[in-house]
Every structure is written in structure tokens, then in C-alpha cells.
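Predict the assembly for these two chains.
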Amino acid sequence: MTRLNAKYIPLIATAIVLLVSFGTGSLLYPNFGTPRVFVNLLNDSAFVGVAAIGESFVILSGGIDLSVGSMIAFIGILIAKLLQAGWDPFIAMSIALCFGVAAGAGMGCLIHFFELPPFLVTLAGLFCFRGLGFVIHQESIEIDHPFYSQVLPQLSFLVAPKAVMPFTAMCFLASVIFGTFLASFTRFGRNVYAIGSSENSARMMGLPIGRTKVGLYALAGFFSALGGIVATFYMQSGNPASFVGLELDAIASVVIGGTLLTGGVGFIPGTLMGVLILGLIQQIIIFNGTLNSWWTKIVIGALLLVFIILQKLIARPTA
Amino acid sequence: MIDWIPDLIFWIVFCAILFCSRKQRVFWTVGALGLLLLFNQFFTPGFFRIELLDGHFYGSLIDVLNQGAKVMLLSLGMVFVIATGGVDLSVGAIMAISAAVSSRLLVSEHQPALIAVTVALFISLAAGLWNGMLVAGFGIQPIVATLVLMVAGRGIAQLITEGQIINFLDPTMVYIGNGHLFALPFTLTIVLVMLGVTLIVVRRSALGLYIEAVGDNAEASRYSGVNAKQVKLFVYTFSGFCAGLAGLVACSNIKSADANNIGLYLELDAILAVVIGGTSLQGGRFYLIGAVIGGLFIQTLTTTLYARNVSSDISPVPKAIVIIIVCLFQSEIFRERLSRYIRPLGRILPWAGARPRENISRITTHDTPER
């Protein structure tokens, strides 16, 4: 019973931090506690969130994916360029998703078949996608397509008075649900947890290591690409120079969401909360007005530290 | 007239170095650097030209040495961290902090350059010590422990500069990154002195052995009387110090401290340099000179791309390809497969340190218990 509880402590701690930060915001600023701010929060952190779901799977398996930020930037400029060339948005998005899956699977193959460290392979991915983005186009391209200007606004709906849930936020929530389902209720998800706990044990149990590993990097690539698509909805443009260092935000929100970086322990809904905490910190700093944006980084760093030490304290008795 | 004579001398010296290192791990790194230089010899006109202007040497090769100093300094510290089986992601952020502290002291507080430099280096030491404490004291996974400072460090640096880009003109401070000693860039002197001192300390005392022992098996080294925690603490502190030095060089180079951009992605370059130098990310062995040559290799690659008019935005792509190729050649499974297909290479590879083929059945590699 105590062991079962230990598994949930980081998740509970994350929930408490989320509630406390939302509570502080609501107490300090009169309009903070409205549904509208919350929906905005979902909207602002949608693309980071979608990418963080993919990152969660990689971290659950004990790996790491550094290529998230440049992948999002690359997909953004790819879609913007294809739309500018007169392609249908759905075809452009399908191409983007296929590219994400293929690139992720490629990195997964290098990691699995040649036993290269995930850190270096995805680092190569980071450099590669960043450069490829600039190969497509050197500067920012604005997206000027009827799908973006007319269809997308209609896909949002009213969830509360004065709070319109945009399509990006729905994409984010759908990804969370899909990710949770995949991680907790499928054979693939259990294999990911098993590999993250101990790859050798998983192999000796006869679990399909190769298929799972390649599959989960492909999945991470898919989520990154989806994050890139959501980012084009949000930004209405594609820019190869954007989202530098986004992978750090994604990794930080996964860790703050209660997932152990050693792998094997964590929950996808935790990542949702982690992303929201990061977004809330930014919102509070914006609401405050006198604090500068660099405080965000310091607070996130401090939160990371607290959570890491918390995880260490929890892991000690069971290990 | 006889333009090719200096080149010829260069290549004779280079081949001699290559020949001397033929039985060492560093052979592959030197060889890779040689291939890159050979490419430039034939396809980049003027790459090897060195001119003497106002008593200083100028040219692409000198530029490589000067610009590569930052990565070489970082990899000098990083190589020990990686040898203990860890990794230090925070060096870029520590560079920014060091640059911010020194220029703030110089400009806003009107302190002499010597004090600014000393304080900046002490703060970098403290930052490294902090990483070491998290890793050794709390037993936190190195990637995570250093991630904290990587995220927060740039924020702290901006806090110190108050979000401004601080420009300075103090001659001593400018000299660090732009000065010349014996007609060569002063940065080269910094790197060589650091390399020399480190090499002596590490190889003439038992410290190097301790570091490798901790990286090989921290538990076993503890049983044999090595204070693994102290070794780890030292390693991260030293990496912090090297990062601080690199930060000073970086801000002196451009005569200003930009907390957002100084050392951005340089931690990745440093890790890459160490890996190219032959040190495995698994830890256990380190190749100090290899790491420095690895740093030189990365800078040569960058300079080559600039010299060939490849836009700096696109240059990450070839870099990524090089990372993958280098990593593949370090993977024993890849070498084993390659040597199966290409017979002559199979005969050469064991000579350069690949394991004999019969030992690399996949089952034996996988059944080894986790460390």
C-alpha cells in the first residue's frame, strides 16, 4: 500500500503546486481566476504541451529527445512554405506528420540498432532540423490561407461566458487523452514502462524491445510534428529561427509533472499539469508587470530542483 | 612562387603526428581532422595561407585556433565529467553568468579588470560546486542535476546584467579574447597552459586514475578506498571553472556580455568534442588531448563551412551528419557489421582498438548487468 502511494506522490505534489500557483494568481489579481485566463493558458501552452506528451514517452523509456524545438520550427516553416506554394492544408499537414514519424523512427533505429546514446542522436536531430528549416526558407513566412483565416476560428466554441476554447487547446487536450490511453491502457505503453524500469529485465521477459523503442521515438516525432502544426495555428506563420530551447521547456514540464528522468515512473496527465504550471508562472509574471521575463527561467529552475529532490527522497526508501 | 612549401611542411608534420598516434585512441580524431584539412587543401583556396600583419599572424588556421578556444576550454572540463559517467549541461549557462558578472563589475561597479576576472572565475567555481553537490551529495542523475542550472543560469545571468547587453572597452579585459602573445592569439596561450597544467595534474598524480575508476564502477571504486563523492565534486567544480574561463574569452571576443546568446548550444559542442575525442559517454576512460583535438575538429568544420560560403543558419546540417557518422564509427556493433562487409577494413579495425569479432555476439553485450 505504501509503495502504491509512493508512485503517486510526485503527481499529487504537482497537482498541489498547480493549485497553489493558480490560487496565488487568483488572490493577487482580480481577473486571474476566470475561465478565460485558463483557456488562454491552454491556448498559449498548446504546442509545448503536445510536444511534451511525446517527450514524456521518451523519458518514460529512460531516453531523452532534444530535437523537439527545432522539429517544431522545421514543421512550421515546412507547412508555411507548402501553403504558400498553393498546396492543400490537409496534404501539407499529412506530409508534416509523415516527416515527423519518419524522422523519429530514423532516430529510434539509430538508437536501437547501433546502441548509440539517445542524447547524441537527438542532438544530431536538433542540429539537423534547425538547419533544414533554414534550407526551406531563410525568413519567417506568414500563413495567408482561407483554412487558417476562416475555418479555424469556427472550430472553437464557447465553454463558459466570455471564454472561447480555441482549436489549438482542443488539439492539446485530445493529445493528452490519446497519450494517457496509449501509456496506461495498451500493450505498447506497458512495454515503454518496462523498458524504462529495466531494459535488461524487459528483454529477458521477451518483450519486443526494438519495436517498442523505434515505435516510441516515432511517436515522439509524431507529437513534435503535431506540436509544429498546432504552433502554426497559434502563430499564423512559420519561422525557422523560432522555438530555440523549447526542448528544455518540454523536458522541464515532464519532470515537474512527476515523471522520473531515469525512466519507468510517471503519468501523462502529470505532464499536462507540468505544462500548465510552466504556463501559469509565465502568466503570473505577465500579470505582475514589474517582474522581468528572466524570472520565469529562475522560477522554473527552482521548481525543477524542488521536484528532483522530492523524487530523490521518494525513490530512496523503495530502491 | 613557392607557395606550396609551407603546406608541404605542414603536411609532413601532420603525417608524423598521425604516425606517432597510430596505436592510440586519438588516431581516429587526428585522422578525421586530417581528412577535413585535406579537403580544404584541395577545395578551399587560401585556407592554409598565413600572413604576418603588424607582428601578428592571421589566416584561417589561426582563426580556427582562436575561435576554437571556447570549445576546447569547455571540453577540457567536460571530459572529466563524462569520464565519471556524467554530463554537464550547464556549461553554456555558466559561461553566460561568468560573462555577466565580469562585465557588470567592470562597467557598472568600475572595478579593475583583475578583480572582475577573479570574481567571475570564483562564481563559476561556485556554480560548478553546486552541480557537484547535487550529483555527489544528493545522488541526482547528472543530466537532471545540471539541467537545473542550464535552465536557471541564463535567467540569473540576465538578472546580473539587468537584461541589458553590457559593452566594455577595458584594455585588459579585451586582451583576453583579442590580444596576441608571441604573434599568436592569447586565447591559444590560455588553452595550452590549461591543457598543460591539467595534463600534469591528472597524469602525474593519482587523480586521473581515481576519475577513471569512479567512471568505470563508482561502487567498486568506493570499496577500494576511492572517495567517489569527492572525485565527482572536483570534476564538476573544474568543469564550472573551465566554463567560466570560456565565458570570459567569449565576452572578451565580442567586447560585450549578452546573457541570452553567450555560450548558447556550446554545451552540446563541448560534449560532441569530447565524444569525437574518443571518450565514451558511458564513462570509465578519458582522452584529454583527444577532447581538445575534437574541439579543434568542430571549429575547423565550422570555419570550413564559412570559408565555403555556407550560411551559418544551414551549417548545423553538415554538423549533424558528422555527429552521426562519428557516433556510428564508435559503435562497436556498426564497426562489426562494417568489417563483415568490407574485408580489408576488418583487418585494419582491430588494430585501432575495435574488439575482436567473436566477443561481440549480441547476447554477451546485452547480458552484462546494468552498472
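Confidence is low (pLDDT under 50) at residues 350-371 of chain B. Strands of chain B lie at 50-53, 56-59, 166-167, 180-181, 184-185, 256-257.
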